[in-house]
Amino acid sequence: MARTPAPDIAIIGYAQSPSWRAAELTEPQFLFPVISEAIERAGIERREIDFTCAGSCDYLSGQTFAFVMNLEAVGAWPPISESHVEMDGAWALYEAWVRLQHGDVDTALVFGSGKSSPGVPAEIYPLQMDPYTITPLGADPVSIAALQARAMLDAGKITEREMAEIAARSRANAIGNPYAQVTGDFDVDELLAEPYHTAPLRKHDLPPISDGACAVVIATAAKAKEVCERPVWIRGIDHRIEVHQPGMRNLTESPSTRLAGQQAGVGDAPVDVAELCATFSHQEKILRAELGLGGDVEINPSGGALAANPVMAVGLARIAEAARQIAEHGKRRAVAHATSGQALQQNLVCVLEGD
Amino acid sequence: MGDALPTTTHIIEFPYTRTLGPVYSTFLTGLRDGRILGIRNRDGSILCPPTEWDPWTGDALDTSPAAFTEVGPGGTVETWAWVERPTRKHPFDHPFAFALIKLDGASTSLLHVVDAGAIDRMSTGMRVTARWKDDRIGHITDLAFVPEAS
Amino acid sequence: MSDKTASDKTANSKPAPGDTAPDPDAPVTGMDYFMQLEYHELLCPVVRRYAEKLRAGKLIGHRCPKCGLVYAPPRGYCPIDVVETTDADEVELANRGVVTNFTIVTPVQYYGQTKTEPFAKVSIQLDEPGGTLTLQDVLDCPVDDVRVGMRVEAVWAPPEERDTSQIGNRSWGSAEGCIKGWRPTGEPDLPADQFLQAAF
């Protein structure tokens, strides 16, 4: 498949809220400082933002048009040009990236947010599955992920020990992340001694339930160079989706991740660090394999989605964390990944580079 | 956060009646009649659950009755997961398995449930068979699967 | 309409007694699904205080320290100036105001609808210090008499009947359980040019 060269668009600002098990504040309230901080970090005025795109899910909030309330955190007066995706904020970033390529505008504000705490995620997400054959069975994300994990184990592609090691490493990395929720040093053998939650998954293989938000500001090259000391260039971004029915996929592979990675140009040069949105421990191994990330690549220094899973913001947060690695920690080239649907049905890959 | 903090409870309810179209109508009618049906893909493979299109190319499929063929009722478990604490939306109040089941005659697997009774009765590669409800209406829950040896 | 209980595992819709049994030979052409989701959300501190004041018979709002706009109920921020508002910005609101907008709803008997007769929902701009409450109920006033400019006053439930359990984190249904509705005061209508600026 031919690849079109990516235009020069950079991330110039980013911010996150902490991830809470149950936030006391409303979604607009905790979005508020995140958006302000991202804009401030970007070094631009709020009124300079040409386009705003948000990612969120009304089913999480339990209210139709909940996403409209979130715009109160943006300062949408005088009226602004904005859009919304019923997706993780990573896809809102994709839309904003496309928008900036029209050449008539320079900057965009992107954010993702969600409160998973008020609802019961296991009861909400079956509604996104085939309504005739899957929803009525109440097939929930953990059960579907468990099917994928069992398939990985049976194929000899992972062991339960490796899964626990991924969980332990993620929680240990998260100690240094002020936004993370599940952190600490855990002994792998002790983790493995815990009972199954939904066999073969144990609690540590699952993401936490989190409330949180993330915002990112992007700009075209001229603007980025004008306002930003260390712009983080989006060298490639692509997303692909697979067949819906889990029984029509090979759950031990992620061809959509592979293709999105190819289109985004992951393999064009060595990768220093990757932030992968593996919401279940075994998925990290699938993603690494499909993106061709070897043992020399640092994976999820933030702790990843196993340490904090603010659904609708978690994918955008991977992009923000990858950008941070370049802007603040001297890394040269990073990969960020976001996912949607169950068992890695839909995947977005973003390649970032510093100057 | 603590239990002392007040919460507000909000319940959303919507009753839906969905029309079915040619493929799901045939499939669910089959379930009502105690048969599991698959549909023939353009390459001759049998898709179960049936779709109106080739899932990989998007090509439209022939959806006339002749394109359907019975699969199962027995099949092989390709992968499984053990649900220890069912939610209100699961088909059972007691522990059970979700599984991808390759029904005899089908080329794809069906996501469904196995009422195995205990986790140690589940294994990849095991044989299962449909257990039909007496009172069927044409719904994916008209059946469940059980170990074939039971 | 058959009632779905939480323990109904299959979400099947069985014919109610007296219905004709479905034809066993006719194709199945429909599938019922009863969707139900429950949410238990922590009340944010701003709404907790608002509810506490409602139970005490007081309506409160927040006044933005920059633009002076009064938000009723308070949200904890001003969306125009993008500044946080706090207890320091709290103002006690008037119990009287003017209808600035209304709609007459003719109820369709969909699942969950309890009303059978047309009813009004109004926006009320409160007297000084201001603030606009939306989706309020009107009392002692035929639906056809509801009009923009009509002067109204709050009708509170007696203290022992006040209940804020339905007050959530969102602004809609904002005084439910404490203010039963708003009745016309009988005063002459307010001319439109006296409240147009804050109409919602």
Can you summarize this structure?
Chain B contains one helix and nine strands; from the N terminus they run βαββββββββ. Chain B has 150 residues and is mostly beta strands.
Q: For the report, how would you describe the main beta sheet of chain B?
A: 5 strands, antiparallel
> What percent of residues of chain B are in strands?
35-45%
- Separate helix tally of chain C: 1
How far is the N terminus from the C terminus of chain B?
Answer: 48 Å
Number of strands of chain C: 11
Query: Runs of chain C with pLDDT <50, length 5+?
Result: 1-17
Query: Main β-sheet of chain C, in a few words?
Result: 5 strands, antiparallel
- The tally of structural domains of chain B comes to 1
Total separate domains of chain C: 1
Biggest sheet: strand arrangement of chain C: 9-8-7-10-11
Count of helix runs of chain B: 1
The assigned structural class of chain B equals: mainly beta
**Average pLDDT of chain C, to the nearest integer?**
87
Structural class of chain C: mainly beta
C-alpha end-to-end distance of chain C: 38 Å
Overall shape of chain B: it is globular
What is the N-to-C succession of helices and strands of chain C?
EHEEEEEEEEEE
Helix residue percentage of chain C: under 10%
The portion of residues forming beta strands of chain C comes to 25-35%
Helical amount among residues of chain B, as a percent range? under 10%
Strands of the widest sheet of chain B, in order across it, are 7-6-5-8-9
